[in-house]
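Reagents: none. Just compute today. DNA-binding transcriptional MerR regulator.
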Amino acid sequence: MLIGEVAARSGVSARMLRHYDRIGLVPPTGRSRAGYREYGDADLRRLLHVEGLRSLGLSLSEVARALDDPGFDPAVVVDGLVAAARERRAREDELLDRLAQVRAGAPTAWPDVLRTVGLLRALGPGRTPAARQRAALTTVAADPRDGAALAAALLAEDDPNAAGALRWAVVRAAAAAVPVLVAALADDDAVRRRRAVVALADVDDPDAVAALADAYVDPDPEVRARALLAGGRRGDRRAVAPLVGLVVEGRDDVEAAEALGVLAEDPGVRAEITRRVADAAALADPPARQRIAGALAEVPGDGARALLERLAADPARPVALTATAVLRLRRTGG
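Predicted 3D structure written out:
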């Protein structure tokens, strides 16, 4: 086969075939009387192997070694290619995120784009935590449309001081920040979901409230707890049963009791709280009953007092002492 036929059958250009010949990667078997390259079936098979290896990302020198060196270890090279591909994908994902954040800022002119890009650089991981904190504290005064970029930076922030500044900024740019935070609650990364739910708990926005309610059943216990505490403080009756569950479980039980106290300001909800607490106390072990007795300090009404009187006679002394102390506080108004 002459070079034109090989190019047609393989899809490799004649120019590239000549280059392969010059570097000794795919030399033709022979030459015609007129001096033209002639390729045999074995040459064509080698060419196809070359193209297959190149499609994996191997350089021409690596392809030559793979085909000619008996000691060549393909696993090592493939591992390196996998790492390089993942790095490229991470860079592309980072670029895509940055473009999405720029677009979320609703740019109408190139100065808007450059402003958002400058903010993203100021909040980037290459800056010190103190610099990121300063950038967050000074951004909202410049343009609240940058809430999307602030929210994205918050979801990636490890430093507690910088994260606190970013949450402060996100609350003040909530209109643009909330969609990013709500979307993060569907993320596979529990850490990002935790950061999102903490930020949403501080935002007074209908979409934030709805997203927090959806997070009551999040698979991560910390996300669930943060969402439930925020929902209870906002008077969401749906949080009653799982908040009682937090008290029984001993996870954030003091904060859960405070949230139940907010909910108990509504007489209708108060009756539900008392009923659920009584049901839980009937099945709980002594440490849980003691926490329940303590939580009832936050719940007014005759139903809570009657339950405390029963717990004051509990056979477990710590439970009885806690219930007695709470009853005394209720009588004295303490």
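The mean pLDDT is 89.
Action item: order primers for follow-up constructs.
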